[in-house]
Input
Amino acid sequence: QVQLVESGGGSVQAGGSLRLSCAASGRTFSSYAMGWFRQAPGKEREPVATIRWSSGDAFYVDSVKGRFTISRDNAKNTVWLQMNSLKPDDTAVYYCAAGGSPGIWNYWGQGTQVTVSL
Output
């Protein structure tokens, strides 16, 4: 079993920055990709940014391109999400996920709240 532990959420004013971290632990960790998803009240969970574990190739949803950066450290089994120029629309619970094959997300973290106020 793989455990994902997120940290770094909080409250910030619009225009501010936050950095989310996700550390993977448990059995020997081998993942195709890791990613960050978010779910705002009354909305479906959506992917925000994902990164292929081996190549580092990253994907971003259009609404965060140029503002968010996903990165990973293979040796530490850790992935980060640097969020800059935050907007109130970014307010959501952010979840870390790990997947063993394309489009399949096998493991999820507990979620961390990000609140952006005007």
In short: The longest strand covers residues 18-26. The two ends are 40 Å apart (CA to CA). The chain has a mean pLDDT of 93. The chain is about 0% helix and 55% strand.
